[in-house]
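Request: Give me one sample?
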Amino acid sequence: MNWFTKTFSSTLGRKFIMSITGLFLCSFLVVHLVGNLTLFRQDGGEAFNIYSHFMANNPIIRTMEFVLVAGFLFHIYDAIVLTRRNKAARPVGYANSHPEQNSTWSSRNMGLLGTIILVFLLVHLWNFFVPARFGELEGVPNADYLNLYSEVVLAFKNPIYVALYVIAMVALAYHLIHGFQSAFQSLGLTHKKYTPFIQKFGYAFSVLICLGFAAIPLYFFFFV
């Protein structure tokens, strides 16, 4: 093994990759939420359909999709590897060590939270990405883009899907609250002067982003 392979296959190397990919995925969440907020415009879905058309046909965005998929895969794979290594290094459970006194609930359940998010992501892609790219959605009259807005309205009238969406956003919030701070710590970006701000910013970011996403299906379910 050369030095590069050895470095990034080590525990520290994998934590570094987890941190970088995690922060990159945070930036994706911001961009995705900003675009989805066009759903609140009272224009019959025109702004959202135009946004969706742009995202589906812009060559830069299409290229970044491959980067995004790679980021997800690396993040998930490294999470699995690190979890197995931690369990192998600590074969005896926490039964008598009172972990709740030394760690947060989210840090002890990142695997569970990640699994919920992954299940939701697969369902979400099946409901929206697959029909938009490979299905036969209706086009908007007198326009050259598809009516993805109608799919949103239909999906968010399903109480099971809305419940899954909201549960996934709660899981994502807890996942981000721990992951955001942990990413900076793994990158060595800790300082007694700045770490408290990073913690507060990460908490606010996690809650606001997930509230923004959760508000969309709830709005369509109850008011549209």
About this structure: The two ends are 58 Å apart (CA to CA). The chain has a mean pLDDT of 85. The first helix runs from residue 3 to 9. The chain has nine helices and no strands.
